[in-house]
Amino acid sequence: MNATVILSAYYRHKPGGFTTRLYRAYRALDAAGYRVIYIATETLPVEGERIQPVILPMRSRPTSLWYWPEFYWRAVRELRRLTREHQVQQHLMFSFFYASLSILASWGLGVRTLTFIRGDDIFDAAKKRFARPRLWVHRVLEKLGIRYSHQVITTSETMKAIINQRSGGQDKTQSLPNNITTQALPIQLPNIRQDTVRIATLSVLNPRKNQLLVLQALQQLPAQHWEYLLIGSDNSGLDYQAELQAFVADNGLSERVKFLGWRDDVPAILQRCHLLLLPTLHEGSPNALLEAMGYGLPCLASDIPEIREILPDPELLFYPHHPAELTRKLERFLQLPGYAGVIQAKTAQCSARYTFDWDQRLVALVDAAVDG
């Protein structure tokens, strides 16, 4: 018996939480016996017995104004061809943008599109260049996606409520949060009288991730025995890293703030750290925070609805629009004996809800759509 074919699309590899979960979805479906065919402009770094790439012959360069129109047109054509050739009944897409490819390509073919939403593109668009046209496009994509997707799966109850309020679709939306996939590491709590306290943030660099707030908070600390590691690359399109580096230089922090870029040895780096900070202004279900929780690292994060779902203890949260509260909590972390242990214990207490088999739940959603 031939394996059921699932079609998907993503333009090319970018490091980050989005592709981490996309590739994991492909591997989970492959392990469950599905055949996954994805359309892309290059082979993605995900392999499996039944995972098959179909590469689009792009003429435009990624920096060209014609790149996205060409990708969209070619992807729609190829999706429709493959849908007919393999009699596909199921498309799996991450984001409303890719859902729109599926909806156009499968018009009249009876395909069920499962749309997984990893973040709020409308929120992000407001913080990018050409915000007005971006906002209009993403609002249209969201409404189309809600109307024509078979089901929309968000990463948090907060995001589900926001999308339902904006675009309707209460009968189509549900949430599947990310889970903790990491194992506990031998994290050493700092000896605040002797150790340099090593603090890390793991995320792409852009205004939504709000790393400038951490730098502002650190700049106000009277204590000097700290080091701050920023793990991740700039994807803002606004040269946000240069803005952060200018702040570091202007405030004499260059010796204690390190920009590491994307690294393959993140577990080894975090094992040597004492605290993870997540200053984000908006999230879905942040992989970086969940990974750090799994490692056993003390965590402090933004007091926003999406993070409160994961870290409901107010001691672990700080106001993300002004550095004063974060500065106070960092002062306690650096100066009070035993406070790091308190934060570590409170972080651990929040982990239980996120220890589950994400792959199994994703496959169950696809099974239900295929059988339905």
UniProtKB/TrEMBL annotation:
Keyword flag Glycosyltransferase: yes
Residue ranges of every copy of the Glycosyltransferase subfamily 4-like N-terminal domain listed in the record: 15-181
Protein's name according to its UniProt entry: Glycosyltransferase family 4 protein
Source organism: Thiothrix subterranea
Keywords assigned by UniProt, alphabetized: Glycosyltransferase, Membrane, Transferase, Transmembrane, Transmembrane helix
Transmembrane spans: 91-110
Keyword Nuclease in record: no
EC number: 2.4.-.-
Any matching Pfam family: Glyco_transf_4
